[in-house]
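To close the section, here is one more complete example, presented without commentary so you can practise reading it yourself. The ligand is adenosine-5'-triphosphate.
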Amino acid sequence: MRKNQKIGLFGGTFDPVHNGHLIIAEYLRDELQLDEIWFIPTGKHPLKDNRQISSVEHRLNMLRLAIADNERFKISEIEIHRPGVSYTIDTLNELLETYRDREPKFYYFIGMDNVNELHKWREPEKIVEKCQVVAFGRPGFQPQLEAQPFVARIQFVHVPLLEISSTFVRQRIREGRSVRYIVPKEVEQYILRHALYRRDDK
Ligand code: ATP
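Output:
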């Protein structure tokens, strides 16, 4: 990494990654003039039911396929290799420490659904101090009062909205419906080849 780079951090379950994620990442990269975007797939998720999440290997493979043609998109496996549940503050601290001599500026992306959950995260006041938290809209979500103490430190960016989610993709696959243009072609092929999301509990 070169010195003083601006790096966007995009954490998520990515089960699977979909075009909504990719559009947001590229839009924010351009809008904020970021050098790179690092996708950070979760290992164990603090606020989601982990039994229902696909294997790390499948989620990583799909992410790799999805970003292969964008040289500014990278994957950080930092949360995957950490044992137990991963907290954003630990990830930030570790990244700041690892790249200390190159003095990067980190931008942590969160959707509006997560802005409203920020007060439940570990040490949210430290998160907004150590990086620039960037929030973008998500259909159906408005910032709520609970998020207030941190809202002033958050940068809100208007991103073209798409009403899709990984849940929606999984549901459509389960129902035998098309996900063409909702996920990248290579991800669609991967899902079908590995028969992912067929079972009711996923
Ligand atoms: P799931 O439906 O399984 O909960 P998801 O689509 O929300 O998954 P995640 O991997 O959990 O995907 O999301 C990572 C981040 O991307 C979150 O901050 C989430 O708010 C955001 N995000 C995902 N899809 C959209 C979308 N269509 N519009 C805006 N934000 C989105």
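Once you have examined the tokens, check your reading against these statements. The mean pLDDT is 90. The two ends are 37 Å apart (CA to CA).
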